[in-house]
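Example record

Each entry pairs one chain with its bound ligand, adenosine-5'-triphosphate.
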Amino acid sequence: MIKFTITSTKGGVGKTTLTANLGALLADMGLRVLLIDADVQPSLSKYYPLSATKPVAGLTELMVRGEMTPACITPTIYRNLDLVVSDDPEGHLPHWLMNRIDRGFRLRVALQSPLVADAYDCVLIDTQGAVGSLQDAAVMAADLLISPITPEILSAREFRDGTMELLHRLEAARALGVPLGPMKAVITRQDRTSDARLIASGIREDFARLSDRVCVLETVVPHAKAYKEAATLRVPVHRHEPRRHGVTPSAYAVMHELAWELIPGLRGVHAGLNSFRERMA
Ligand SMILES: Nc1ncnc2c1ncn2[C@@H]1O[C@H](COP(=O)(O)OP(=O)(O)OP(=O)(O)O)[C@@H](O)[C@H]1O
Ligand SMILES: [Mg+2]
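Structure tokens for the complex follow.
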């Protein structure tokens, strides 16, 4: 099982869009996927239709009990794709968590439960775009951090400073023996202006120089209306845009490249076709 946390110290960069679409693609490739909505604003919880009319429980039970229970998991209408909903609209959970001595480890430990470890191949955790105890717990639960970054100058600077601060702050966890996952930055919502391309290459150079803990992925998610449309229709974007004419690659192609770069063992596996499980059989 591999656990990804999608994080950024900046809001609105495309975390939820990426979590939902990557999760659904991996599920369509045949992996058993659990999405966890660890944002108190429950965007991921509403992204796809759920197969149950009302979830029984969600993130609150998971965090307060410190273990996974069947009630915390709600299936979506898509095969292989389940969800732990965010059910804390008033934001009590981050405050509750802040006062716990084990706040950093609680989600990490909860995900070691057989209900997760034996039932899923991949867990994706979406986080809020602000520093807080819930975000720290999600970061510390991950094997790998994925951080979308938009190629605008202010946002790139904020990303660099915010990320360095986050990594620095969580160094304390490493001192306690928790291995902090490496961070893969994904340039996302890149438009076709030369300015965006220039900033994107600046981001790559910056991180090559600044940190060996962060690398910038080759795959770039373009700014394209398919991502918004798919969210409105509540379908995975690789299904919504299987092919496309013109220079911008289709969402199907982009999302596959991204999944393959993140999990190299999946290269060659496509959604719906020669799925991962059939290959392993
Ligand atoms: N590649 C893309 N092309 C065009 N629009 C996009 C793309 N990715 C995301 N968006 C749009 O950008 C907006 C913000 O995306 P999203 O909600 O995923 O960001 P977020 O980082 O999760 O925000 P928050 O910090 O508020 O949780 C949404 O309207 C979404 O549809
Ligand atoms: Mg979000």
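The domain at 2-265 is CATH 3.40.50.300 (Rossmann fold).
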